[in-house]
Specification:
Layout: H1 27-86, H2 88-91, H3 94-108, H4 115-134, E1 138-139, H5 142-150, H6 152-155, H7 161-194, H8 200-215, H9 225-235, H10 237-240, H11 243-260, H12 266-270, H13 273-286, H14 288-299, E2 303-304, H15 329-344, H16 348-356, H17 407-427, H18 452-459, H19 493-507
Antiparallel strand pairs: 1-2
Length: about 500
């Protein structure tokens, strides 16, 4: 709105936001401009954050759909091929197979399931049932089966399949679960931060930036770029404080994404669970006589079952499972796209003021002597402030109380720390659960380096009796919690409890 007619202009003593002086604006016009500038700025900010949120949400849906499809196809392949291959052996054990896939899905969705124990229990149940099916002529009470299970480590009825599958599947599921959760948390953080309202000081500063030149009859003069950035660095100072932990999360997600397409390809692990199960069953069938002999030797000869059917278990030789050698192009493209999109938003929070002070809003660097500097059409002289709340103490354009950080944003910083810890541990093959415990806590934390073999040995250690690992909050590459991160002091116990409560909503996604 421009009022060039001199009869419409005033001395300007009535102005409350714009510089007092010769003006074309009434008090009512100034108030309208203030409301208009606020709504316009909020729309710009909403659009900028929406693009990041859309980025993360679309990746979340893509990866989530891809991983679930892999598991669905594996389960369907098992149901399609096992009846023809194994007959009664399959039909009498269908619940064992269904329970396995159900537990894998529940774990992926965030249920508090020990994945190693789940896989161990699956093979144990399958071993008991198959041994009974292979020896129907004997009476095999629970006590005898307990004895057999004690010898299972030496027997290895399924060969090396259980150990190999447990190692690879555990690592794969930990990685995919934490990665998808990380994308979801990132999206939620952006959503919550975008709803933080502007302060009264920012509303006034933005009005002065965008419309006070109009009141001076200079509607075609754009604000100086440095002037614009100083205002937005002040108004978005709390948001900029997200930057260290935001970068930590993005970097951690990029690391885990590298694991998807590496030697332990996620596609070949999750998508072929059924073929590994078939390998294990075939191994037990082929060595049934030697396995039975060793069990009898260790546990004694069982009694003959007089009620047993005289019909010998028929071997079915159906069509063997052909392992679909997926090209991996689908996963390769997903990972490649994700890396590019994650890198695009890595410095989002600190670059936001510059992004919003684009050429549509400010003059850019070409008209530094002919731009609106908040007082007149002239060069803007003050230095541009640094990023974050602490750097706004001398901001010449916006009054910022650096002693009162926004609590919503502080909570989101904590969310990012928690999720980064999970993702980094997932990269190392560790599944971390935050628990309410007063026990002494030791563990690797997120700063560990972990070679594949070493992680594998740690994951394989007594999974049926091992409690879930717990860890204190780690230090994040020098930017997180300071001090000794490997010991949880009593004074910080309440902090851990609060973190645990915050974390649980994402563990149960």
């Amino acid at each position: 709105m421009q009022h060039s007619s001199r009869s419409w202009c005033y001395q300007g003593e009535h102005l409350r936001i714009c510089p007092q002086g010769y003006t074309c604006c009434t008090s009512e016009m100034e108030e309208n401009f203030a409301n208009k500038s606020r709504s316009e700025f909020e729309a710009m900010l909403k659009e900028a954050t929406r693009s990041v949120q859309t980025n993360l949400t679309s990746q979340y849906k893509s990866f989530d759909g891809y991983f679930q499809d892999l598991l669905n196809k594996s389960e369907k392949a098992l149901y399609d091929t096992f009846p023809g291959m194994y007959g009664d052996l399959y039909y009498q054990n269908i619940k064992v197979f269904k329970d396995l896939y159900s537990d894998l899905r529940r774990y992926y969705r965030g249920s508090n399931i020990n994945l190693e124990e789940t896989l161990t229990e699956f093979w144990n149940r399958l071993q008991e049932r198959l041994f009974k099916l292979m020896n129907p002529q004997y009476h095999l009470p629970d006590e005898y089966m307990d004895c057999m299970m004690k010898h299972s480590e030496q027997l290895k009825p399924f060969g090396e399949v259980p150990r190999d599958l447990k190692l690879k599947a555990t690592r794969a599921f930990i990685a995919v679960r934490s990665f998808v959760q990380g994308l979801g948390v990132g999206s939620d953080v952006v959503k919550k931060v975008s709803q933080v309202p502007l302060s009264l000081y920012c509303t006034r500063a933005i009005m002065k930036l965008m419309y006070c030149a109009h009141c001076r009859g200079m509607s075609n003069v754009k604000p100086c770029n440095s002037y614009c950035r100083n205002i937005l660095k002040g108004c978005l100072a709390n948001q900029a404080d997200l930057d260290p932990e935001w970068r930590n999360l993005i970097d951690s997600l990029l690391l885990v994404a590298d694991r998807f397409d590496g030697p332990s390809n996620i596609e070949s692990v999750i998508g072929t669970i059924h073929t590994r199960i078939a390998e294990g069953i075939s191994n037990m069938q082929e060595h049934r006589e030697s396995i039975t002999a060793k069990v009898f030797q260790g546990c004694g000869n069982p009694k003959i079952n007089p009620k047993a059917s005289s019909v010998e278990d028929k071997k079915r030789r159906g069509k063997s499972i052909s392992e679909d050698k997926a090209s991996g192009l689908g996963l390769e493209k997903l990972v490649s796209d994700a890396k590019g999109k994650l890198r695009d938003i890595r410095d989002f929070w600190v670059s936001l003021p510059t992004t919003l002070c684009n050429e549509k809003v400010s003059s850019g660097s070409v008209n530094e002597d002919k731009c609106w500097n908040g007082m007149a059409r002239s060069r803007y002289l003050p230095d541009v402030m640094g990023d974050g709340l602490a750097n706004q103490i001398n901001n010449p354009e916006v009054e910022v109380d650096i002693t009162k950080p926004d609590m919503t944003i502080r909570q989101q910083i904590m969310q990012l720390k928690i999720m980064t810890n999970r993702v980094r541990n997932a990269y190392n093959g560790n599944d971390v659960d935050f628990q309410d415990t007063s026990d002494d806590i030791s563990g690797s934390g997120s700063g560990d380096s972990c070679l594949d073999d070493a992680c594998g040995k740690r994951l394989s250690k007594n999974p049926s009796t091992r409690p879930p690992e717990t860890h204190p909050m780690p230090k994040q590459s020098g930017q997180g919690v300071s001090g000794n991160s490997s010991v949880l002091l009593p004074s910080s116990f309440l902090l851990l409890l609060s973190l645990a409560a915050v974390a649980m909503q994402y563990l149960r996604r």
